[in-house]
């Protein structure tokens, strides 16, 4: 079974993780731009970071036959510094043209501040102006519910945003409903302690169906593990779900969403109407 | 989790009895860990000062949801642990 990791910060991982992922049949991974664990001191530091994830990581991944893709943005945590954020936004278009960049992400909110929201909106506008896919970070813990609602309200109220081209990540049980009912893609992150467990991710797939759903491990410099994605695969199997359904969640679905960017090369094994038949909750035509 | 009465889209192939057998020890362990951590905090110096900490109130509310909820316990607990609506 082939697997695609839709969200992982390989800059924070060892080469041994690429090796493990390859052995677990991961064929592609996607790296959204994020906070480094400390606030960067200049726009130039972001330029260097974007260069790293668009140049060095694809090369490192290729040694293990893994295709590496990136998303570019100013992350929500550092977006609170408006002046710095706008300096960074000014050179984002240069990176959007790189051959492995899929779109704008992971934009979003951290503490739901006015500045964060302003930078989120500016980056949504940039994405729409350049016909880019959007990958959204929803806040952590107690801020998640309000932050998710704020971004959904903005996108719905703005108009002109195709929900098929936007994915809300780090969804949990209390935010999945509002994301899916608005027609957006939802991604669930398996992350010890603060996000989902493999069991809860499979619960959500059973409740919401397998359409418009992604699963990621979001491995980074914190306690996390690329192998948790594969733990979720095992969890789904031991509950008795069919391999074809599992492969759709962990391989075909990333192809359906990410493949809207012509630079994304992996191809789904079957059309989504067939893959989702009998297991989709979406009521509108798919 | 569901915001209407729509049944699960992908029902678990295993029966409720099989799932209870699969998950009982995990459920037991999570509850015992919570209880033990709470005891640990209460044994420490200054326990009386944190008795009214709102985080513990939220855990008390979560335990009520576990005991009395039905079908959407995880969503209800996460909502109870969230900031109030803006």
Q: What would you call the structural class of chain A?
A: alpha/beta
Shape of chain A: globular
Q: What structural class should be given to the helix and strand makeup of chain B?
A: mainly alpha
CA gyration radius of chain A, whole angstroms:
17 Å
Characterise this structure.
The complex is a heterodimer of chains A (286) and B (86). Chain A is an alpha/beta fold. Chain A has helices spanning 15-23, 43-62, 82-96, 114-129, 144-158, 173-181, 198-208, 227-238, 243-258, 272-276; strands at residues 3-5, 26-32, 67-72, 101-108, 133-137, 166-169, 185-189, 213-216. In chain A, strand 4, helix 4 (114-129) and strand 5 (133-137) form a beta-alpha-beta unit. The longest helix of chain A is centred in the first third of the chain and has 20 residues, at 43-62. Chain A is globular and about 50 Å long. The model of chain A has no long low-confidence stretch (mean pLDDT 96). Chain B is built from 3 helices and no strands. In chain B, helix 2 runs antiparallel to helix 3. By secondary structure, chain B is an all-alpha fold. Chain B starts with 15 loop residues before the first helix and ends in a 6-residue tail after the last helix. The mean pLDDT of chain B is 92. Chains A and B meet through helix 5, helix 6 and helix 7 of A and helix 1 and helix 3 of B.
Topology (elements, then pairings):
The complex is a heterodimer of chains A (286) and B (86).
Chain A: E1 3-5, H1 15-23, E2 26-32, H2 43-62, E3 67-72, H3 82-96, E4 101-108, H4 114-129, E5 133-137, H5 144-158, E6 166-169, H6 173-181, E7 185-189, H7 198-208, E8 213-216, H8 227-238, H9 243-258, H10 272-276
Parallel strand pairs in A: 1-2, 2-3, 3-4, 4-5, 5-6, 6-7, 7-8
Helix pairs in contact in A: 2-3, 3-4, 5-6, 7-8
Chain B: H1 16-43, H2 54-68, H3 73-80
């Amino acid at each position: 079974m082939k697997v695609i990791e839709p969200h992982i910060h390989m800059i924070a991982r060892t080469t041994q993780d690429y090796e493990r992922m390859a052995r677990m049949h991961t064929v592609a991974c996607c790296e959204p731009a994020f906070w480094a664990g400390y606030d960067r001191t200049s726009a130039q530091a972001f330029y260097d970071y974007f260069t790293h994830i668009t140049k060095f990581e694809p090369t490192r991944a290729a040694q293990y036959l893994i295709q590496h893709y990136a998303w570019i943005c100013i992350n929500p945590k550092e977006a609170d510094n408006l002046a710095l954020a706008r300096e960074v936004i000014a050179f984002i278009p240069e990176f959007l043209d790189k051959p492995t960049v899929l779109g704008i992400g992971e934009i979003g909110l951290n503490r739901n501040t006015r500045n964060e929201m302003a930078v989120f909106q500016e980056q949504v506008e940039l994405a729409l102006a350049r016909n880019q896919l959007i990958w959204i970070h929803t806040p952590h813990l107690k801020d998640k519910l309000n932050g998710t609602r704020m971004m959904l309200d903005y996108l719905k109220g703005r108009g002109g945003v195709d929900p098929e081209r936007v994915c809300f990540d780090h969804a949990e049980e209390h935010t999945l409903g509002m994301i899916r009912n608005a027609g957006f893609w939802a991604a669930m992150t398996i992350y010890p302690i603060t996000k989902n467990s493999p069991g809860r991710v499979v619960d959500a797939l059973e409740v919401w169906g397998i359409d418009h759903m992604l699963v990621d491990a979001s491995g980074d410099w914190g306690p996390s593990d690329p192998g948790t994605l594969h733990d979720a695969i095992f969890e789904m199997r031991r509950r008795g779900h069919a391999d074809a359904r599992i492969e759709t969640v962990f391989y075909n679905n990333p192809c359906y969403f990410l493949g809207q960017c012509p630079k994304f090369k992996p191809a789904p094994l079957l059309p989504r109407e067939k893959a989702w038949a009998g297991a989709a909750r979406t009521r509108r035509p798919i | 989790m569901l915001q209407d009465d729509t049944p699960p889209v992908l029902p678990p192939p295993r029966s409720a009895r099989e799932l209870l057998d699969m998950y009982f020890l995990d459920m037991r362990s999570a509850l015992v860990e919570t209880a033990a951590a709470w005891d640990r905090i209460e044994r420490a110096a200054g326990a009386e000062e944190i008795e009214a900490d709102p985080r513990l109130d939220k855990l008390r509310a979560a335990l009520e949801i576990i005991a009395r909820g039905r079908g959407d316990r995880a969503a209800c607990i996460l909502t109870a642990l969230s900031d109030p609506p803006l």
